[in-house]
């Protein structure tokens, strides 16, 4: 069986217009070419698609059943061609983007929607991970882009463009002993268990670790649940509380005697210089840079 796209287009047009001659006019072909294409299609399928009795051919039950599938098949064939063309132009076969756990509550999906609009055939995979793991994924090429907080020390192979600024705050359950204090000292923070979002690799020291004793988790949702259960204090995104009034009511922001209890960080789009980036990744980096330049 050797069916091509042109045959399917002719078959679809004949079914829609009900006439070989009308289909020929719409497609810019001579009627004999349309008739021959349908005849060859019938031979390839070993089916009679039209009864040729009377002035106009009448579709058979088999033709009607196949017609229902033809539109979707043509759409898929066009998508396949577009994908092949995009790949030949440098589009990556898939794009892995890692989002640091604390940033899942920020407005990051707008960038994914932009990629989908411009590269509709692109396979996009979103992974959530702690900051340290996100950085490792870039270095070992398991992710091409990352949305991360600014780093104290930059890897020499790392390149980035700043997206925006985000705030994270120290919080504790309203039922926790620390909630009874109007202000909490740094020593009190050190001596109470901290719930810290950290890499699953226990050899990597967590960022934003203040306490001498701590429990680790790899995402802010489980951190919030542990904090609500009075198992420790922790640092969560301010936007997470703003979007969840119930959570905000059950948590208290720690007022610290020694420094301001708000940690403002830049959020960066990060990639590795050593990895060859495809068209979609380069497009997003270029878009973010243009955004920054337009707001300066």
From TrEMBL:
PROSITE patterns in alphabetical order: HTH_LYSR (PS50931)
InterPro entries: LysR_HTH_N (IPR000847), LysR_subst-bd (IPR005119), WH-like_DNA-bd_sf (IPR036388), WH_DNA-bd_sf (IPR036390)
Molecular function GO terms recorded: DNA-binding transcription factor activity; transcription cis-regulatory region binding
Residue ranges of every copy of the HTH lysR-type domain listed in the record: 1-60
Signal peptide: none
Keyword field: DNA-binding, Transcription, Transcription regulation
Family per record: Belongs to the LysR transcriptional regulatory family.
Protein name according to UniProt: LysR family transcriptional regulator
């Amino acid at each position: 069986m050797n069916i091509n796209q042109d045959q399917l287009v002719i078959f679809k047009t004949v079914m829609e217009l009900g006439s070989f001659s009308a289909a020929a006019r719409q497609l810019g072909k001579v009627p004999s070419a349309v008739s021959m294409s349908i005849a060859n299609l019938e031979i390839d399928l070993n089916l009679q698609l039209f009864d040729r009795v009377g002035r106009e051919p009448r579709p058979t039950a088999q033709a009607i059943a196949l017609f229902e599938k033809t539109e979707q098949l043509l759409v898929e064939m066009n998508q396949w061609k577009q994908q092949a063309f995009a790949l030949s132009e440098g589009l990556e076969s898939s794009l892995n983007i890692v989002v640091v756990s604390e940033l899942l509550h920020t407005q990051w999906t707008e960038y994914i929607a932009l990629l989908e609009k411009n590269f509709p055939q692109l396979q996009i995979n979103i992974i959530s991970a702690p900051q340290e793991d996100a950085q490792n994924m870039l270095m070992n090429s398991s992710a091409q882009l990352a949305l991360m907080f600014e780093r104290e020390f930059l890897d020499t192979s790392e390149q980035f463009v700043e997206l925006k600024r985000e705030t994270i705050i120290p919080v504790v359950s309203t039922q926790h002993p620390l909630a009874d204090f109007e202000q909490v000292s740094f020593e009190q923070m050190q001596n109470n268990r901290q719930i810290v979002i950290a890499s699953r690799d226990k050899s990597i020291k967590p960022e934003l670790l203040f306490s001498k004793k701590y429990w680790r988790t790899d995402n802010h949702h489980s951190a919030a649940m542990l904090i609500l259960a009075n198992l420790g204090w922790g640092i969560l995104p301010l936007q997470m509380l703003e979007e969840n009034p119930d959570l905000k009511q059950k948590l208290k922001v720690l007022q610290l005697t020694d420094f301001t209890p708000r940690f403002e960080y830049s959020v960066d789009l990060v990639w590795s210089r050593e990895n060859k980036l495809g068209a979609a990744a380069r497009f997003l980096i270029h878009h973010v840079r243009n955004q920054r330049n337009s707001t300066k």
